[in-house]
Amino acid sequence: MKTIISILIAAACASQAIAQNANPTSTSGAEVLYRQGLAAEKAGDPTAARSAYAEALRMHPGHANARYRLGELKIHGPVIAAKGREAKFGAVIVPEFRVDEASLGECLDALAKIVSKESKDEVSPNFIMQDPKEQLAEAKISLNLKAVPASAVLRYLLDQSSAKARFDEHAIVVAPK
C-alpha cells in the first residue's frame, strides 16, 4: 500500500513538473516582460508597465507577480506617472537662467519655455499656481544661474518666493508654504 501511495505521489509531482515546463519559452518570455514592466514602472511610465504586465499574463496566466503589479498600478499609477514627470523635468539641464526682480509667474513661464526648448519638447511642464490670497504675486525674484538642472532652478525660485511645489500626474502645482 505504501509503495502505491509513493508511486502516485511521484507521478503527481512528475506531471506537475511537466505541466510547468510544458512551454518554457512562454514562461521565460513572461518573466522578461515582467522585468520590463518593473523597469518601466521605475522609470515612471505606468502605461508601458501596464502593457508589459498584461502581455506577461497573456503569455503565462499564472504569473502571480505580474498580476500583483498590474493591480498595484491601478492603485498607484498616477503617483508613478508624477514621479516620472518629476525625474524627466529634473534631468533637463538649463544652460542659463537670468531674471532680475521678476514675479514668480514670469519666472515659471520662462522656465517652462527653456525646459521645453532644451528637451526638444519631450518635457513640457505645466505650472499651476494655487495662490488664492495672492501671496506669491508680491515676491520679486533675482537669479543668475548657469548649467543647472531644471529641478534646481525650480527649487531656487520656490525658496525665494516662500512657495512649495507638488508634481501631479499632469502638472506642477505651486502654492504658498
Description:
The chain has 177 residues and is an alpha+beta fold. The chain has 2 domains: 2-78, Alpha Horseshoe (Serine Threonine Protein Phosphatase 5, Tetratricopeptide repeat); 92-176, Phage tail protein beta-alpha-beta fold (3-Layer(bab) Sandwich), CATH 3.55.50. It is 60% helix and 19% strand. It is built from 6 helices and 5 strands. The protein has a 3-stranded mixed beta sheet with strand order 2-5-4. A two-stranded antiparallel ribbon has the order 1-3. Helix 2 runs parallel beside helix 4 and helix 5 (104-118) packs antiparallel against helix 6 (150-161). The radius of gyration is 26 Å and the shape is elongated. Residues 13-22 have low confidence and may be disordered.
Mean of residue pLDDT?
Answer: 86
| Number of H/I helices | 6
| Total count of strands | 5
Order of helices and strands: HHHHEHEEHEE
Shape: elongated
Strand coverage percent: 15-25%
Proportion of residues in helical segments:
55-70%
CATH class of the largest domain: Alpha Beta
Low-confidence stretches: 13-22
Using the CA coordinates, give the radius of gyration: 26 Å
Biggest sheet overview = 3 strands, mixed
- Structural class, please? alpha+beta
What number of domains?
2
